[in-house]
Structure of Putative acyl-CoA dehydrogenase:
Amino acid sequence: MPVDLTYDTSVTDLVDKTSAFVREHVLPVENEFHGDVTAAGGDDLRRRLNDAAREAGVFAPHAPVEFGGLGLTMSDRAPVFEAAGYSTFGPVALHIGAPDEGNVHMLAHIADDRQRTLYLEPLARGIVRSAFAMTEPSPGAGSDPDALRTQAVKVDGGWKINGDKRFITGADGAGFFIIMARTAGSPGDRGGATMFLAPADTPGITVQRHIHTTDKAMIGGHCEVSFRDVFVPDEDILGEVDEGYRYAQVRLGPARMTHVMRWMGSAVRCQDVAVEYVAQREGFGGKLADLGMIQQMIADNEIDLAAARALLIRACHELDAGRHASNETSIAKTFAAEAYLRIVDRSIQMCGGLGVSEDLPLARLQAELRPFRIYDGPSEVHRWAIARRTVGRWRKAQQAKGAGA
Amino acid sequence: MPVDLTYDTSVTDLVDKTSAFVREHVLPVENEFHGDVTAAGGDDLRRRLNDAAREAGVFAPHAPVEFGGLGLTMSDRAPVFEAAGYSTFGPVALHIGAPDEGNVHMLAHIADDRQRTLYLEPLARGIVRSAFAMTEPSPGAGSDPDALRTQAVKVDGGWKINGDKRFITGADGAGFFIIMARTAGSPGDRGGATMFLAPADTPGITVQRHIHTTDKAMIGGHCEVSFRDVFVPDEDILGEVDEGYRYAQVRLGPARMTHVMRWMGSAVRCQDVAVEYVAQREGFGGKLADLGMIQQMIADNEIDLAAARALLIRACHELDAGRHASNETSIAKTFAAEAYLRIVDRSIQMCGGLGVSEDLPLARLQAELRPFRIYDGPSEVHRWAIARRTVGRWRKAQQAKGAGA
Amino acid sequence: MPVDLTYDTSVTDLVDKTSAFVREHVLPVENEFHGDVTAAGGDDLRRRLNDAAREAGVFAPHAPVEFGGLGLTMSDRAPVFEAAGYSTFGPVALHIGAPDEGNVHMLAHIADDRQRTLYLEPLARGIVRSAFAMTEPSPGAGSDPDALRTQAVKVDGGWKINGDKRFITGADGAGFFIIMARTAGSPGDRGGATMFLAPADTPGITVQRHIHTTDKAMIGGHCEVSFRDVFVPDEDILGEVDEGYRYAQVRLGPARMTHVMRWMGSAVRCQDVAVEYVAQREGFGGKLADLGMIQQMIADNEIDLAAARALLIRACHELDAGRHASNETSIAKTFAAEAYLRIVDRSIQMCGGLGVSEDLPLARLQAELRPFRIYDGPSEVHRWAIARRTVGRWRKAQQAKGAGA
Amino acid sequence: MPVDLTYDTSVTDLVDKTSAFVREHVLPVENEFHGDVTAAGGDDLRRRLNDAAREAGVFAPHAPVEFGGLGLTMSDRAPVFEAAGYSTFGPVALHIGAPDEGNVHMLAHIADDRQRTLYLEPLARGIVRSAFAMTEPSPGAGSDPDALRTQAVKVDGGWKINGDKRFITGADGAGFFIIMARTAGSPGDRGGATMFLAPADTPGITVQRHIHTTDKAMIGGHCEVSFRDVFVPDEDILGEVDEGYRYAQVRLGPARMTHVMRWMGSAVRCQDVAVEYVAQREGFGGKLADLGMIQQMIADNEIDLAAARALLIRACHELDAGRHASNETSIAKTFAAEAYLRIVDRSIQMCGGLGVSEDLPLARLQAELRPFRIYDGPSEVHRWAIARRTVGRWRKAQQAKGAGA
């Protein structure tokens, strides 16, 4: 049987358990604090919810089994992360939020034994959090990673790192950093980057400030971090020198898809809130849900959810098959980010004045979702990459024809 | 010369003065308090800014000249209000915000001499604020005004009003209310409403709570207000008994258009912020402003601004000519509200991560603008009305043909 | 391994063979006759192309193996039909066009042995064509099938059918008709329809005229057909009396999806034509393919193709699992029809003046694709159905909660 | 009174006369020949309709009064041309189609007395047609006019022109050509173009072929024309040598706007056809016009029409005031072209299966309108220009600030 989209019952059971856990333990806290994870307790809240998740058997479904996780494939993560994402605090509770989830994924692929023990294990078990320090203030590495300016210079026994990073998610309170720094070439060059592991208390690492963005559910915020003469010993190089861009790719595709999974849950919730509202609210001689323009919004939400999910499944399949899947993840990410914003916007519109009020969670979900069209590559950068690949395929096919002639 | 879109120099001068005033006196306060007018001082701030506006000669450009205003037509208000709206605090500063501006407009048309002295003059001069109590919680009057449930019962020397109102802008701190109540018929009937004037300290009027919405620039918030056995003497009936819906129309068209004017200013500001950003920021081997996808967003913003302005001018022309212009104002409002949201969204996207941060005003302008697609009639209700009028015109034309045959 | 989207090599081989066949034998004819299948020879052309397809081993991939087909599942049909649809004449060549393909599918499910021999076999083998007579002129069954007006009255040994049908694809030249007629209830009622088989030369069946639509690739056109006292013996009832709507559902879901498959091929071709153009054409100091706005169109085409394909696969999976999948097929059909029109429109735009000319096939592909947003249920009807199901699920969940309490 | 959008009664009377004329004399012919002006008689038809238009007093409303026209301003042309455009043959009938109308406009501004007599007068009076030979096949002047490759070389007493032109509207049967050729600089340079007048029978001018596009209402088609050693005497230079680009601008803005005007009529007609259909057609328990999703389409058509008209009026006002108005005409053209396509598409959708059939004119109006998003500059080129101007304004403002500091 060639094509099969059926999940194993072990997965569907986990989805059900996750949904129940989120509704019972997570949503009430999120609603009480209007989705502001810092106001709700930050790391204290995280540890409390992590304990509850462990007890419920839903903790760290992505992490390696040897470190207490459930070792799910990307395909199987999809519905579970979606169920967790129904609350914006769900990813924190299950320890599957950015950037930790992506860092666990990457470390599991690249870290050596010593690094697994020192960095991966405490991270996977939720003992510490982590940060991934790649993006920089202008004119450094932002949408265009080749612009990387942070420098690592070889010194005796290790490297000395200098540079500034921006939008470093989870930096405030992280146990360690994965730092991307240039070890060869100049800003603008392809290649020449290396990844370094560094405990947060390494001298020279300073969290300068939080950039206050509209999303409020990521612990440790989005920070500006400076690195001044930060010494990293050779054994804390992650993988090989100058291979940082390649490793970033290992992390990037899956991390993009888990964003899609988590925020899918929020999008589903928006639709649930709106459907509940219009199914009950009277107006114009009936229920709002019976009005054509409302039905159009309900249906468009369903179509957007279905398409986002279908593209996600395709991309996960490719990743599970061991392929890079840059194109599939770009497509799924771009579509999903835009679809979610359409969904939350329609949901607000269906709920009228209450839709823009704190009486419903929709307005803050809009604020939470808006950055996703920018984070992990703005839609425009993904479209640019998708188009270049498309034209590249045509060029190759032309050359093949030419060679065959 | 039949068609002329040139403004008088008296108007363009006022626009320039208003712009200068807003940039010097208003924007700094708005930015300091991140657009939260309550945090910035509420009515204290308002009085301070009103004084500054009077001194600058830009106060109350819409109000009757006899009460210290500049008596502008709707057409001439357009560019002035736009200039004021460049800051979300601008309308408060010039005393041209909702609902006061619309209430001044309506009272100037309908109030008798006594009411002009007691209610209109202090309102026009900015001595008090006011509220317009029409919309109700479900299943009362919301998008569908015929559902009006608040009751006024005739008693000796006046009327006794009972009911609940919701989303009453500016209620908290208002000097008086204009209350829409049913004096004939049942909820669902066309007609049968009357407008009553009542000082805010009239026994039985209680501001129950603020509905916390995403917009933060209207003084006095959006409130739930209850009316319990509120006595209004006969002389405080505004206009005629049972003519409330007709008067609401007098208020509605212009009030819709001044919303369009004010928020036009915010939309222009979004574009200004984004253009300034992409014109300077480097990326992908040049300025962001030189990238095609960025240019598309810049151009689409310009097109949206131009179209919104052109529709606004058309509607103002109709209103100034003494016509109801329900269709023209519906079209202009619907288009503008949606255009502004596209504009702010594109502007955010152009600014990348900073776009969703407090470093730029865009994210909070999005929150400020989002409700406009719902306030003053959601787009769906306007579209429904526009469609019905279109089909109605066809039906009439058919009947005329039939009659002519 | 729970989720698997890999096709069997038998399928990918067939896709390759189909592509090669279409490019060699079908595209040249289509291009010569500008996509007008009647001008290209109609049934003569069909027979010629069918022979070629048999020889190439790609004929009737959907038909039962016992009748010379390849017996593919819905999932496996998807890429094969897409390859065929790369030319608008491909479906005719492979004998997988509407309505024959859907009729084969339905007859294989419902016909009794006698009917299999008399109707299904000659149809499956391409000896005759067929028509499915369901839709009617206003006020009969159109988007709303319950409005069915064609009547079948019981007479001795069979039924007598009277009524008018419209948009009956392939009627002109069909070997037999499947006629949907009301055997119980009144127009507007759910249920009460029966399916009848009738040779085209049955007295009383008349093809009145062709409705000339913008699509030109379906043999036998879209016709108005009248039925006047058409006698059908009892043994030519397809399935059970009064079960017509249920059987129509059996046909509908798969037939919708094969439309999506076939026109996917046309959409891919549009993108191919446009990419080839912009990759070569100079302008504004480089290739058009290097301009941001062009890249956006290329990328959006890729995203639309990927999403349509992903939704199609999901729906096929459901159908292959034996489920009705009304919702999945509605979603896939609605999304795909709209996506294809966006794709062809962008492709035209990328090619500038040539895009709207006969020098390229794009303009006629637009004309060919436009009806799909209407055929097989306009988008609006699907959205209405999707919305009702969504609200229905919510209502059921509410009742379940209520029952559980 | 600063802003006035009221038309003079002389204009509204002319609009009424034009509408009556079009419905009586023009629409029946258009419908009979399904909008194909060549099939309907080409220049024979044109002469016949021109005579009828003269008799009805509606001929050449734009042409100078001295040559028998009505000498309308751009603002006043707008509603008249719209009324004419209600039929796709209307512009031919009134002699206000492209390219003649734009050529009259340009010649009236630039031609010297001799040229007025020899070229302008017979053209304005409808005795001959004309063509404007600017655009070239790739890699020549298309969307990017600087790429001009056709060369004019100075010879004794005049110039010798060599080059190939493409998409030359009306070339087949034109009485004379206005030829844009390079007299200085190289392809890619700004400037260096000159305009030449040449009778169509000048040796060396050959209409090579028609490019068959989806629009069928322009007489003389869109042709490829070759110029081989075409001699033009000095006195047939239009204006000054090397000033061709500047003159093209004189022609371009107004010509763009008259396109908008004419096709506005077609868009209005689409909406009329659709409204008439849905107001009468039954379905889903009522008239289609009472369904929310249909109402949304009707309303969106109204909004698009109103916005296109409002932008047009703004641009005409600027042109009448003697300004270049490149930005205003770009905005109006871009918005209108896209709006018209949305309108015709929604109109088709409202009419279901008949919408894509020849029973209604909608499908061919879609084919007629589609090129407008490409002709006279594709939307992408206009957006690029609009964006550059926007950023340019910001840069200038910055420099002004810098200079002032």
